[in-house]
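Tokens for C-type lectin domain-containing protein. Go.
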Amino acid sequence: MVATCGIIRKRHLCCCCVCGFIFGCAATIGGIVGIVWYFQNSVSNHLKKNNNGTPMGCLEGWQRYKGNCYFFSTFNLSWTDAQMNCTNMLSHLTDVDDLEEALYFASLTELFISGDAWIGGRGTNSSNFKWLTGEHDSIPKVMNFTYWAQNKPSSSTIEKQFNSPPSMQNCVHVWKQENYKWNNNFCTKEKQFICKQNKT
């Protein structure tokens, strides 16, 4: 009788062990499924964000506009170094195609930039400006739209005073004191900058 009870108890314990193992596995699998579900939804939500967070298809810290991504720097570089910095982020100093885009940059520059900011325009003299868009520098893009501040672009008396070559003052930036219209300035000056990553 004792032996029988011992067998029954052993079977009962074995059943408990098996049940415990099954429920333990189920809990573990459930936990894994839950984690996978969480990350899938997190990634999905991240990619779907637009006005309330990081825009779809853009890296964190970039802004989305008309299908492209824009980076507003928090540090200053010369025009050339700014272009190189953008290139390292698979982008280029931004070009501006129309008034709507210029006003967009004006509003966001006021929000993200503390002063002036380099954009992708550069010229060989004070009247011949084109867009240099990173990897396409060898084939400059025609500047069909402009948003110059009053009496700009111009050759500066400072340029003449220091006998600087014309090309040295022919990099374009958005100008805070003129409501973020454009000015040409010495390319060696250090300013914040705006990168554009083409997504369309």
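The chain has two domains: 1-48, 63-197.
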